[in-house]
Amino acid sequence: MEKNLALKLKRKHYKEKIIGFGFVVLLIITFFSSVNFGRADIGAFDVVKIIFGKITGKEEVYASIKESYSAIVWNIRLPRVLTAIIVGSGLAVSGAVFQSLLMNPLADSYTMGVSSGAAFGATIAIYINIFLDGFNLSITFCAFIGAFLTLGIVVAIAKVKGILSSSNLIIAGIIVSSILSAGIKFLKSLAGENVSAIINWLMGSLSARSWEHVFISFPIIILCMIVCIYFSEDLNILCLGDKEAKALGIDTQNLRRIFLICGSLITAVCVSVSGIISFIGLIVPHMLRFAIGSDNRTLIPLTALLGGELLLVADTAARTLMNIEIPVGVLTTLLGGPFFIYIFITRNKSLY
């Protein structure tokens, strides 16, 4: 029996390595394909030369290529592609963390109200910029502040006698999210004919993303992912229940706070950069749980890879399928809606 168990574990680890390697290869292929796709017909080899030359500082590598092509690849396509990977990875990891932390297959950043808080902050910034002359508030900064203020309110409401429980966090998140959604609708009604500016941001888009967005989002999201991976084994124990975790020496309250802050921080950064992009945090963790199980030590890093790939593919399709660009948030909702229904129907079949 012990030999059979050891063999099963060996096969499981081998399967995880194969999947991880496949995801890395797929991400590289998707990356170069996405940078290559666009209205300007730039050859794949030229794209590689531009990227290599810019990174190494060797201008002679791409000197024979049109300057406009170099600008398109380096200043427009590449920042957008990198932002898509970063945001997709972040949303997927935050979804995996919240689902494990709250032991709820339907949990993600929207359940916690963090996304609604970011949306409300951004909506206020857009509204002020439209109607008050001389003001130019940063939408990204206001979305970030809105997300963290919302997190503080949700935690304050959910805390009973100094203890945070999963059920209280979900209920508090839904309540606060509903109130903020009403606030967004109120501001939209006041905006009148300028409401399109608010709607466009709320639909979620990676259009016109620059290197600034990459430099803002990358270090914060990567740091939070590292923290989540570092404590992933403790998260596995926490999923067994608070009593079992405490018996094994885990400080459940502090651990819950760590993952709550990391997941919310990732979401705040992602939403502040891209707007509301739904279902990435819901779809990706479930796909991988069916494939490799619920061990967060492997689930979290693989979720990051697949999440980045999925959003990158969706964004590439959104900007190339039609003559006009479709907001990527609309596309992910169309893909994620049926999947959400499937999860809801089969929610009693636990994967935790």
TrEMBL record:
Keywords attached to this Swiss-Prot or TrEMBL record, sorted alphabetically, are: Cell membrane, Membrane, Transmembrane, Transmembrane helix, Transport
The leader peptide range reads none
Compartment list: Cell membrane
Q: Please indicate which superkingdom the organism of origin belongs to.
A: Bacteria
Q: How does it sit in the membrane?
A: Multi-pass membrane protein
Q: Check the record and name the PANTHER family matching this protein.
A: ABC TRANSPORTER PERMEASE PROTEIN MJ0876-RELATED, FERRIC ENTEROBACTIN TRANSPORT SYSTEM PERMEASE PROTEIN
Looking at the keywords, is Transmembrane present?
yes
**One Pfam family hit:** FecCD
Q: Which GO terms describe its cellular component?
A: plasma membrane
The opening ranks of the lineage are: Bacteria, Bacillati, Bacillota, Clostridia, Eubacteriales
Q: Name one GO biological process term.
A: siderophore-iron import into cell
Q: Name one GO molecular function term.
A: transmembrane transporter activity
The UniProt transmembrane annotation reads 18-37, 78-98, 110-132, 138-157, 169-191, 211-231, 258-284, 326-345
**Under which name does UniProt file this protein?**
Iron ABC transporter permease
Q: Which family does it belong to?
A: Belongs to the binding-protein-dependent transport system permease family. FecCD subfamily.
Write down the InterPro entries for this protein, in alphabetical order: ABC_BtuC-like (IPR037294), ABC_transptr_permease_BtuC (IPR000522)
